[in-house]
Amino acid sequence: MLKDPGIKYRPFIPPIDLPDRKWPSRRIGKAPRWLSTDLRDGNQALSNPMDVERKLRFFETLVGAGFKEIEVAFPASSQTEFDFVRVLIEEGRIPDDVTIQVLTQSRADLIARTFESLEGAKKAIVHLYNATAPLFRRVVFGMEKPEVIDLAVTGVAAMLEESLKRPNTEWMFEYSPETFCFTEPEFALEICERVLDVLKPTLERPFILNLPATVEVATPNVYADQIEWFIRHVSRRDAVVISVHPHNDRGTAVAAAEQALLAGADRVEG
């Protein structure tokens, strides 16, 4: 055990160069869009994941609390997750004013399985992600930047293809450059632009870009700077919903969400 645990912490490098940042002087004037990820995050975190019956009770609680967007499952991860989505759809448990969201990694087989779980849904958001930070590129994937971009582009193309097979569902898509908070800003922007090139969102059919603080490696003000920088540079801003998903590693998730909203984000996941 370290006698002085403080020595293991290092300053976040590099900080965003944003001397004319606007977010500190802004005020939050309206509520953001809210997405509950409790059903998905909870099942990932528990040693004994919830079964379908428990997830149904939780879903009904979230609906009763007023959530209009709920990430309900990671359908390709287990039979329980898949079955839960099927129960929601087949038993007509999703209110007309509620949109369910599901999560998938950027792999063709998992994307196909995900869309299979949503067969017959009136509307749904499909959330695709892949990690983009240098540590993940080097250690987890063993990929260079072009390969990571190709992983994202191939994934969203497969997502679009699967959706066209099911024209009776109202689809919305979301992409996360996971580990955004410690990905080089220019690379996070580049990969998101390539995704936008494939999906070509419009004002009538916007696309969600989720910029998560997957592991909080810096203070909330740094995250706000990253969000403001990204929003200044991303194209098709009127056709893009900027979503944020702050975690709570430093106990500052609320502050990170609030400051990200001041920086221009539209939506909060958590």
Description:
The protein is of the alpha/beta class and about 270 residues long. The protein is about 40% helix and about 20% strand. The chain is built from nine helices and eight strands. An eight-stranded parallel β-barrel has the order 1-2-3-4-5-6-7-8, surrounded by eight helices. Strand 2 (about 70-75), helix 3 and strand 3 (about 100-105) form a beta-alpha-beta unit.
Topology record:
Blueprint: E1 33-36, H1 38-45, H2 52-65, E2 69-73, H3 79-90, E3 99-105, H4 108-117, E4 123-131, H5 134-141, H6 145-164, E5 170-178, H7 185-199, E6 207-213, H8 220-233, E7 240-246, H9 253-262, E8 267-269
Parallel strand pairs: 1-2, 1-8, 2-3, 3-4, 4-5, 5-6, 6-7, 7-8
Which regions are unreliable across 5 or more consecutive residues at pLDDT < 50? none
Helix content percent band: 40-55%
The overall pLDDT average reads: 94
Secondary-structure element pattern, one letter each? EHHEHEHEHHEHEHEHE
What is the tally of beta strands?
Answer: 8
What's the main sheet like? 8 strands, parallel, barrel
Multimeric state: single chain
The Rg value, from CA coordinates, equals: 19 Å
Strand portion: 15-25%
* Class computed from helices, strands and strand pairing: alpha/beta
Note the gap between the termini. Answer: 33 Å
- Tally of individual helices: 9
Shape: globular
Q: Which strand order does the major sheet show?
A: 1-2-3-4-5-6-7-8
